[in-house]
Amino acid sequence: MLTDTKIKSLKPRDKTYRIADNNGLCIEVRSTGTKLWRYRYRYNGKASMLSLGEYPLIGLADARKAKDQARLLLDDGINPIQIRRQEKFEAQINNLNTFKHIANEYISEMLSSRSDGYINKFKKSLEIDILPVIGEKNVKDINSADVLYIIKSTVNRIRTNGKHGTGEVTAMNNQKIIGAVMRYSIATLRAETDPTYAVRGVLMRPEIEHARPLTREEQALFRRGLDNFKGSLTVRNALLTMSYTMLRSIEIRRMKWRYVDFESKIINFPISTRSNNQERTTKKNRIHLVPMSNQLFSLLKSQYIESGNKEFVFPSVYGNNSNTIGNSTLNVALKNMGLKTVTAHDFRATASTILNEKDFDENWIEKQLAHADQNKTRASYNHAKYMEQRSNMMQQWADIVDSWKDINDP
Question: pTM score > 0.85 for this model?
Answer without folding.
Answer: no
